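thread: overnight batch results

M.L. [08:02]
morning all. the overnight job finished for the chain we discussed friday. pasting input first so we're all looking at the same thing
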Amino acid sequence: MVIKLKHSIRPANINDHKQLANLIHFGTLVHRHLDWRPPLEWIGHTPFLVLEEENRLVAALACPPDPPSVVWLRLFVAYDEKYLKTGWSQLWPAALEELPQNPDPLIAAIPLQSWFETLLKSSNFQPTTDVVMLIWDSGEIPSEHPCPDITIRPMNVDDLTKVEILDQSSFGSLWHNSRTSLEFAFNQAAIATVAEIDGSIVGYQISTAMQMGGHLARLATHPDYQRQGIGCSILRDLLIQFKQRGASRITVNTQEDNLASIALYENAGFTRTGETYPVYQYLPQ
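M.L. [08:03]
and the structure it wrote out:
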């Protein structure tokens, strides 16, 4: 006789914290979005769903919109192979139902493992571009370029409202950061700076510390001030600061189709590592 175990889907709650932490920590089938906010910080946001079997969590999926028009698959985890397809086939449609329908959000994921990429392909996700990794490890500071009379200073929390506005004007909708995400980034930053002209913020960067170096997580220049050397100046200042701290390598990632961004980094001495990660977008048929 075959006994079929009953599965139930429900929103994650704070009482699931320990089980989810164990599932993420010990599980071998874990997708975590490249995010400033840890997965469990999304508990209480919708949708964050768990699949339960006999009072045991066997899978979970979180994809709360942030900002409201953008949805990244921030977490998908299955206890083992047995629950991989079952978890996805039940949790993803349920999460999709909970997402806002008006207007339709942009839904995307960056799979870091082949098994998650396979799941995405099975559910009307299509590759749109790649994220490429670059590294600066030469120790050579790029030459100073002529640019407007700018002041580069440390970012403070009062700058974040203006930084959010600049961020939204500098990137396509899919790559916008909310104020909350920027606060998480700012609080984790090793070095965060803004560039000003006549007291107005025209560019910024946020970078984190890593073993032996750092990671440039975000760099933007206001569209009205691009191609004037401001991004180069912000980047040069960052490399000087990291080098003064003893950092021997700095990494950054950007989209394969963002040619201006790639040119900026390569002109500063960054080289491609060869690592690439596909960006998939949900395109229902």
